Amino acid sequence: MEFTLDKFNGIIIDPLTAPNDTDSFHAELSEITEFSKQNNKGIIWISLPISLSHLIPVATELGFVFHNCLEDEITLTHKSEIVEFVPFIPTHTLGAGALITNEHNQVLMIKEHGMKGYKLPGGHIELGEGIEESVVRETFEETGIEAKFVSVVGMATRHPYQFGKSNLYFVCHLIAQTQEIAIQDTDEIAEAKWVDVEEFINNTENYPFNRQMVASLVGKQGLELTQLEGNSGPTHKPEIFFSKH
């Protein structure tokens, strides 16, 4: 199998060069682990597609452990004796909520099926999706309202969340471009409506976190999307949020 050396003294195996049969895979992976040992390398990384999942027991037999996974791929690592810590990248799930008010001092709210109170439209930020794109999409799916992103006005964390991971939630200020509610995702959303800000804050059927969040953040400026000179190349950052006030 082919591999490259990374800048952290590690080895990254090219899964496209992995043999399909277990005996050949065992032999070639053993050679790489021996190379790593002889050359004082740190971590060996290999990402196996689901089509090669039958090779996973071979890798674990040679000392590889699970690191992270996607729907169709799992990444395993082999840690040498000189390494004490392997960075675990997927530690958080990400979500975004849309704080949208109109000229009548009303805030846009949704209620999910089986839920008591109301909350901000929003949801999970998909893999490869930006905060702006996500919160605009979720707002439309849950309310039918087209909205324009303005800023990030708040953040909250929660742990433990799903599957032992942490959750990072972004509260975003959006401006409605339309007013008529037309729920798209009726399987998830039972109701969407404009609610007077004070009415929402004072309604004890709504969760305390949501009430306090609206009371604290309505009218705030927040962190705005910013374009920086030289933001290109391998270190390009698709979204940068800076305070401008």
| Class per helix and strand makeup | alpha+beta
Low-confidence stretches: none
User: What's the name of the CATH homologous superfamily of the largest domain?
Assistant: Nucleoside Triphosphate Pyrophosphohydrolase
Biggest sheet character: 6 strands, mixed
The helix-strand sequence is EEHEHEEEEEHEEEHHEE
Total E-strand runs: 13
Straight-line N-to-C gap: 54 Å
Main traits of this protein?
5-stranded mixed β-sheet; elongated; 21% helix; 6-stranded mixed β-sheet; 245 residues; Nucleoside Triphosphate Pyrophosphohydrolase; 2 domains; Aminopeptidase; alpha+beta
Write structural notes for this entry.
- By secondary structure, the chain is an alpha+beta fold.
- It has two domains: 3-79, Aminopeptidase; 92-230, Nucleoside Triphosphate Pyrophosphohydrolase (Alpha-Beta Complex), CATH 3.90.79.
- Helix content is 21%, strand content 34%.
- It contains five helices and 13 strands.
- It has helices at 22-38, 56-61, 131-143, 197-202, 208-217; strands spanning 3-5, 11-13, 43-49, 65-70, 73-79, 92-101, 106-112, 122-124, 147-158, 166-176, 189-196, 223-225, 241-243.
- The strands form three sheets. Strands 8-6-10-9-12-13 form a six-stranded mixed beta sheet, sandwiched between helices. It has a five-stranded mixed beta sheet with strand order 1-2-3-5-4. A two-stranded antiparallel ribbon has the order 7-11.
- Helix 1 (22-38) links the parallel strand 2 and strand 3 (43-49).
- The N and C termini lie far apart (54 Å).
- The model has no long low-confidence stretch (mean pLDDT 95).
- It holds the Pfam family Nudix_hydro.
- GO terms for molecular function: ADP-ribose diphosphatase activity; NAD binding; NADH pyrophosphatase activity.
- Residues 91-217 form the Nudix hydrolase domain.
- Keywords: Hydrolase.
- This is NUDIX domain-containing protein.
